[in-house]
Write a structure and sequence with these properties.
Layout (H helix, E strand, L loop, with lengths): L3 E3 L40 E6 L14 E3 L2 E5 L4 E6 L5 E6 L4 E8 L2 E6 L3 E6 L5 E6 L9 E3 L2 E5 L4 E6 L5 E6 L5 E3 L6 E3 L2 E5 L4 E6 L5 E6 L20 E3 L2 E5 L4 E6 L5 E6 L7 E3 L2 E5 L5 E5 L5 E5 L11 E3 L2 E5 L4 E6 L5 E6 L10 E3 L2 E5 L4 E6 L2
Parallel strand pairs: 1-15
Antiparallel strand pairs: 2-34, 3-4, 4-5, 5-6, 7-8, 8-9, 9-10, 11-12, 12-13, 13-14, 16-17, 17-18, 18-19, 20-21, 21-22, 22-23, 24-25, 25-26, 26-27, 28-29, 29-30, 30-31, 32-33, 33-34
């Protein structure tokens, strides 16, 4: 069967001519986003600064989010502009045009910045100056963030491969290959690295734990099993990045489950049915996740039990729900930032940034949060 790769934004976002996933009055809308209800604002959040990152990502479902490192916020636009901003003032420190279309996110660490291109390039810049240090080709386009750790730059490619390149030279250290199903989501899991191991998810619904030294798989476990009468129903991609929290790995799949695995041997601590392609956030005793219909759920990370569900934002195409101070935060397709009480799920504040909407996940570093909109506006917020 011919391989097909689809952009799936909601549960049944089919590639049908004339359909719109943004909602509105068109009779062909697949899912109409919920209108925003009035809320009682408990606080009003103002941003510290904003800066412009080229042309942003435009209308593409491109989660090209920023990263904070070395006193800088580093972000990129889809056309190949990479820029570093002062973490306090938002002023530009350096800009670099890499000459390739970028997708998926920015990685930083060990004195370097890493981006991946739709032309299958891994491009490495010096974090202090933006000067290009090296670039190397992998097997296909890169649509998730590169990750830097243990002297390596690790990237996922859309054809199911995992590459580890030497961070100093760009030489290939190891490669892992996994067959991609005929029908998949248009996305790939990024990688979590900790204590000499790396974990990522694959389009067959499995997560695999690797040794960073040589790429050898330590264990692999299925997060959910395909079911249903159609190929769409049986899609079970693990596109959300697994989270390592202590000795537990949390993972979730589209059309599947969310589960907690023992880091050492992959044994399952708990699992339950939940469908999502968005990243999870783990803070304290709570896992927060937006499901495929933008219902926000908080689960007890020890048992998987539901603590609360917030369903007033259904089909507003929320980003990941990120823990920030005493609250959880998510952006939506119209550019609103929603603030949730982490204990009850009640929406306690809302900001409108516009900017064509928000696709990239909020990034939290300490007491500061960064939001990147489709039109390339980069905002810095302090915790309320």
């Amino acid at each position: 069967m011919k391989k097909v790769s689809l952009i799936i934004i909601t549960l049944n976002l089919l590639l049908i001519s004339g359909c719109s996933w943004f909602g509105g009055d068109d009779e062909d809308v697949i899912y109409k986003p919920a209108p925003l209800n009035d809320i009682t604002e408990q606080f009003h959040v103002k941003y510290n600064w904003s800066s412009q990152v080229g042309d942003g990502v435009g209308d593409f479902y491109n989660k090209l989010g920023p990263v904070s490192y070395d006193g800088k916020v580093i972000a990129a636009d889809k056309n190949g502009l990479v820029a570093a901003y002062d973490i306090v003032t938002g002023k530009v420190i350096w800009q670099k045009e890499v000459g390739s279309e970028l997708f998926g996110g920015v990685g930083a660490g060990s004195g370097i910045v890493a981006v991946g291109s739709t032309e299958a390039e891994v491009i490495i810049l010096d974090v202090k100056t933006g000067a290009e240090l090296w670039r190397n080709l992998v097997s296909s386009e890169i649509i998730s963030s590169p990750v830097i750790g243990d002297g390596k730059v690790v990237v996922r490619t859309i054809d199911g491969k995992l590459f580890a390149l030497n961070a100093k030279t760009g030489e290939r250290d190891w490669i892992y290959d996994r067959t991609v199903p005929a029908l998949t989501l248009r996305g790939t899991s990024s990688i979590s690295i900790e204590r000499g191991v790396a974990v990522t998810g694959f389009a067959n619904g499995k997560i695999v734990l690797f040794a960073m030294s040589n790429g050898r798989p330590i264990w692999e476990m299925r997060v959910g099993n395909p079911s249903g009468s159609s190929e769409l129903d049986r899609m079970i991609d693990a596109d959300a990045t697994p989270v390592i929290f202590g000795d537990i790995i949390y993972a979730v799949t589209f059309n599947g489950n969310i589960a907690a695995f023992n880091l050492k041997d992959g044994s399952i601590s708990w699992q339950r049915e939940l469908s999502s392609y968005q990243n999870m956030s783990v803070g304290g005793q709570i896992i927060s996740v937006s499901d495929t219909r933008s219902n926000v759920k908080a689960l007890d990370r020890r048992t998987g039990a539901t603590l609360w569900t917030q369903s007033s934002l259904v089909d507003r195409h929320l980003t990941a729900t990120i823990s920030f101070g005493e609250y959880l935060v998510a952006g939506d397709f119209e550019g609103y930032i929603h603030w949730f009480d982490r204990n009850t799920g009640r929406i306690v504040s809302r900001n409108s940034l516009g900017g064509g909407g928000i696709v990239a996940d909020p990034v939290v570093i300490g007491d500061t949060m960064y939001i990147y909109t489709r039109d390339g506006s980069l905002y810095s917020f302090d915790a309320p």
